[in-house]
Amino acid sequence: MSEEDEDQPPPPKRPRASPPADQVLDNVLETVLQFLDAPGDRSAASLVCRSWHRAESATREAVAVRNILAASAARTARRFPRARSLLLKGRPRFADFNLLPPGWAASAFRPWAAAIAAAAFPALTSLNLKRIPVTDADLELIARALPATFLELSLLLCDGFSSHGLASIASHCRGLRVLNVVECDMAVEDEQEVVDWVAAFPPDPTDLESLSFECYGYAVSFDALEALVVRSPRLKRLGVNQHVTLGQLRRLMTHAPRLTHLGTGAFRPADGGDEGIDFGEMVTAFANSGRGRTLVSLSGFRDLAQEYLPTIAVVCINLRTLDLSYAPVTPNQIVMFIRQCFNLETLWVLDSVRDEGLETVAMYCKKLRSLRVMPVVANEDADELVSEVGLAAISRGCRDLRSILYFCQSMTNAAVIDMSRNCPELKVFRLCIMGRHQPDHETGEPMDEGFGAIVQNCSKLTRLSTSGHLTDRAFEYIGKYGKSLRTLSVAFAGNSDRALQHILQGCSKLEKLEIRDCPFGDAGLLSGMHHFYNMRFVWMSGCNLTLQGCKEVARQLPRMVVELINGPPEDERTEDVDILYMYRSLDGPREDVPPFVKIL
Amino acid sequence: FCEICLTNNCDGSAGKIATMIALVSSDNERFEVSEEAASQSQTIRNMIEDGCADGGIPLPNVTSSVLAKVLEYCNKHAATTTPDAASTEAVIGSAGTRAVLGPARHGPVVLRAVPCRAAGRRCPEGCRLDEGQDAGADQATFKIENDFRPEDVEKIRKENAWAFEE
Predict the structure, then answer these.
(1) Residue A408 in contact with residue A387, Cβ under 8 Å?
(2) Contact A133, A159 (CB under 8 A)
(3) How far is CA B104 from the centre of its chain?
(4) How many Cβ contacts (< 8 angstroms) between chains A and B?
(5) How many domains, chain B?
(6) Which of A143, A227, A347, B108 has the CB geometry, 3.0–4.6 Å to A172, for a possible disulfide?
């Protein structure tokens, strides 16, 4: 492409007869549309006229299908034959909380793997899958279809594959640059059956830039891993699993001095103390890797030996991301290095840091944009470690906050209102008060005013998760002010269908709605009929929906796939619906439907 | 197609002495176009009116190959402006380092090329597209006839929204 301009003969001095206008146009368009990146621009270009549509389809390289069930592989390949990267998302998010039985859409990816193997996407170099079941056979198909050209595989929250699938990719895809396996639920294997996929990489120098397997449950051969890192001079991101000890980590770090992202594995010396790694050696290791100032992200700490945590202090100045979500760090420990983290933008911690730890974070991490505070014990009976005190401190100290996920046992409206005023740039507000129906613990009032203030004051809010005791009033606020909301999660809240009506009639940009265990029935559901085709999906479980209401939706919206999951067996005469999951689909309902799913 | 006035709907008036304007690309290629066609660009029209165009209008940031393409596009559409509702405005600009064109989303949109700063796409001439602010003085706006049937537009819009967009 880049040579096209230079290869053309110099234009004549006089105006010349033009080739057929359409052909010229297509060439010009394709030349220029190459540079259109933003998805919105591409959609707009595709609607201008026929030749623009052709040109845009022929030049779109980054193709995203954010609900894999919404469009078939065949349709996607027909429209975007030159796709270079494919992003596919599968299960609804509530599946992460075990609300969706396994095997719900077990073969969703199979047609895509088959399409890739049949050269339907001949330019494909990059595959990015989220919440999708992937089998070893699928990975083998892809690896064999694109051995020379496949460059990037990212699997996030996927499941079903094993070490064998990874070995297929490692051994066949010679130019592989990215292999990221993140938070995946890989198939359980017998110890003898586990393949050392790290050893499956060919012995030549690799082009690997990113290798991440922090969630991988088995040990990989360290010798093979070390040799792989040594012969991967372009490696920038390395995330090892908890079987890699601190001493081994130190050795890997010496082989990859220019890492930008490091997943540190166990962060504990091997048992038996053979490693003899001391504090100073670890500090040196970080100092050396930090010398290039390239290290910007740390994660891992999967079996943290607390006394070694302060060794990271020397690289904290450059850190932008710190993920301590597997490390129960105490307030005294976090204070030892958080003071240097003044460039930190993303911080994930456990509530073991307590309110005091959060106060320290608020004091020093002024550039913080994204914070997650997750529970060590995810249980409503657990000790209260963080509270409204921590939330208020964060809101006062971190004014640039864009995104927060905060688990706690109890909360006050005042603290939430403060946050809404102190952090007007918030785009994501997810508050999880772990007990059900918890009111403001100081006033005893529902949490309506707090959430109301969030939607009212944070005009850029696109994602909201509610919790605590909420009446219909909270949803009146959300419907009235939540005009930018695209994703809404509601659990154990509201009094009546009015709440759901407020949401569906007020939130005009709503695309994703997930509701569990709320007293919402058919009337509430039907109040959204005008809007459902604008939404990616609606999930309602544990509510008061009946078969009749769901059938009515299916009747009025024929292009909506309306799935009833975990319904009663056919012979049982009940109208109750356990889980409703509905989504738009261009190609009709799927065919592989497990017995616990009924599609209306 | 009329080779003199470079339009599709030549009314023969260009057979008379048509005022030709020379546009000079960065590599010193001269392109002669009718004044009418060139005046689609506000900047050029200003220069013509100010009398600065006599020696040819230099476009130091646009190469000949790009300019040739842009002119073809201009010429095709200069003649097809139909004031109907089913048309889209597209903008061609030669500001910045390169001429680009793009569709209108909510009215005329300017896509203007600016020099590549971020490491990212390797563009042939070191450019990337940047959404401009407003239809400034150096852009030209064209109406493109939308040859889709309404049901086709609806189908594509649905396909975009349901499957391939954010």
Answers:
(1) yes
(2) yes
(3) 13
(4) 147
(5) 1
(6) A143
Write out residues 127-156 of B within 8 Å (CB-CB) of A: 127-129, 131, 144-148, 153, 156
Listed in sequence order, the residues at least 6 apart from A216 whose beta carbon sits closer than 8 Å to its beta carbon are A163, A181, A186, A241
Q: Are the beta carbons of B144 and A6 separated by less than 8 Å?
A: no
pLDDT tens digits, one per residue of A197-237:
999 999 999 999 999 999 999 999 999 999 999 999 999 99
CA atoms within 13 A on the CB side of A408: 28
Report the CATH number that the domain containing residue B42 is assigned in CATH. 3.30.710.10
Its pTM stands at: 0.81
Instruction: Say what the ipTM of the complex is.
Output: 0.85
CA distance B148 to chain A (A): 6
CA neighbor of A353 nearest in space, from A372, A381, A366: A372
B163 with A71: Cβ contact below 8 A: yes
Is residue B53 less than 8 Å (CB to CB) from chain A? no
Ramachandran angles phi, psi of A199, nearest 5° = -75, -10
Residues of chain A with pLDDT under 50: 1-8, 10-25
Specify if B66 maps to a domain: yes
Separation in Å, CA of A28 to nearest CA in chain B: 6
Distance CA A402, CA A428 (A): 6
Rounded CA gap, A433 and A410, in Å? 6
Query: By residue range, what is the domain housing residue B25?
Result: 17-80
Q: What pLDDT was estimated at residue B21? A: 73
Q: Residue B127 above 60 pLDDT?
A: no
Residue B52 lies inside a defined structural domain of this protein: yes
Q: Do B163 and A586 touch (CB under 8 A)?
A: yes
Interchain contact, A5 vs B76, CB within 8 Å:
no
Beta bridge partners of A404: A371, A429
- Look at A538 and B133; give whichever has higher pLDDT: A538
Whether the CB-CB separation of A248 and A265 falls below 8 Å is answered with yes
Helices (H), A482-578: 497-506, 522-526, 547-556
Whether B116 maps to a domain, the answer reads no
Q: Counting beta carbons within 10 angstroms of the beta carbon of residue B49, is it exposed (0 to 12), middle (13 to 18) or buried (19 or more)?
A: exposed
**Whether A40 and B165 lie within 8 Å, measured CB to CB:** yes
Q: What are phi and psi of A516, to 5 degrees?
A: -135, 140
pLDDT band at B98 (very low <50, low <70, confident <90, very high): very low
Q: Does B24 lie at the interface with A, CB-CB under 8 angstroms? A: no
Q: Domains plus CATH for chain A?
A: 36-195 (3.80.10)
Residues A58, A81 contacting (CB under 8 angstroms): yes
- Which residues in chain A have Cβ-Cβ distances shorter than 8 Å to B56? none
Tell me if B166 is assigned to some domain.
no
Nearest to B165 among A43, A50, A75 (CB): A43
Write the single-letter amino acid at B124: P
Tokens of A174: 């010679």
